[in-house]
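TA notes. Do not distribute before section.
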Amino acid sequence: MKDILTAPFLKEMCATTANMYRLGWDERNGGNISYLLDNEEVAQYLDLDHVIRTIPTGFDATPLIGKIFIVTGTGKYFKNVQSDPENNLGIIQIAKDGTTAELLWGYADGGRFTSELPAHLMSHMARLTVDPDNRVVMHSHPTYTLAMNYVHELDEKKFTHTLWEMCTECIVVFPDGVGVLPWMLCGTNEIGEATAEKMKEFRLVVWGMHGIYGAGKTLDETFGLIETVEKAAQIYMLTAHLPRVNTIKDEEMVTLAEFLGVDYRKDFLNL
């Protein structure tokens, strides 16, 4: 059996959480990540029949029975993951009843997964119906994206369009746009269900006055989606109070998207 601390997926989680904290996206214990792992790969590092303890999820995730996730812990700080992964991360398998998580590794101090796990599992279920290669759900509080929530209409067409105008790459990186939810109580199944419904259409969902959810095939891809939104939001916040002299026109976005063969949301443009 290989040393779990050398597993590529664990090292990648440590590096990603450290980077997100460094960028100021995940203050204190803000933010959470769940990463769907390959069972055969995990079996190289852990005995999948050895369950340390079971933890109720508070949600029926029957479609995910048998699947294994590495998940950030509740109340844990992203800044501490890299130096102490065994206390700050956990590897869980969804049990046969669909409502219980079997802890295979981690949460060594008696902790448990993020309180947002039901929202994550719902989003995984939704994204897997759209893209069977989706493996990551990532939640964070990027500063400029959050700031933009307070000065811009929380309308997904208008919000997406503004972001697309800020950087040439935006319509290419997230051509499916950004879903938007109003402020809702976090840590509940209600917000999880609303996010999952949006995830059928978008890989990015803004939680009004709270943060953003991203989904993708890899940690890099998902991080890159949020990173690109945050860069566009930063440019918007740096220029919103100034006269707009230049902008990327809708016709130019079409030219770019079609040149690169991107399937973009045509209904989000004003043509």
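Switch to the second chain here.
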Amino acid sequence: MNDAQRHDILSKQQFEELMSRVGMRSDSELILYGDFNNWFAAFTFWIFNYYGHKKLKIMNGEWKK
């Protein structure tokens, strides 16, 4: 979710290209989970929300659970 050269989040164009490559559409529902108390899931949630994706959920519990 980060641009390796700018050390920042992906641009909107990069984000849209990545989502297109992995088959994610703007109306797809995304359920996120991860490790370290879901910190990466929360960061990813923020990026998706920032770029207008609204069908997002964070699973209650982290990778260990």
